[in-house]
Specification:
This protein has 4 helices and no strands. With about 100 residues, it is mostly helical.
């Protein structure tokens, strides 16, 4: 399976896993960004498992209710768009608009 930019889904999974497991400070991902990555990953893979502790972790990382809402909305939007594209058999274009 390919994503919109042509990166294999397996490679993306490995990248997300590496970012989630990396010690804070090892790579240029702030604790806030790492909390968002954990939330987005869980909401994408196991949405029914998201619970109050996940929201509390986002608040502890400095996100307010609006930022948490927006993060959830963005994750849900991407899931929706990808599901529609997959369901309609949309093919990924090699070049973006106006390229090649």
């Amino acid at each position: 399976m390919l994503t919109a930019d042509g990166v294999a889904a397996e490679a993306q999974d490995r990248l997300v896993t590496a970012l989630l497991e990396a010690p804070v400070g090892w790579i240029d991902v702030t604790p806030r960004e790492q909390a968002l990555l954990r939330y987005a990953d869980k909401l994408t893979r196991t949405p029914a498992a998201v619970n109050a502790a996940d929201i509390d972790a986002l608040r502890e990382a400095g996100l307010d209710d609006l930022a948490i809402h927006d993060a959830g909305a963005v994750v849900a939007y991407f899931a929706f768009v990808n599901r529609i594209a997959s369901g309609l058999g949309v093919e990924i274009e090699a070049d973006g608009p106006g390229e090649g």
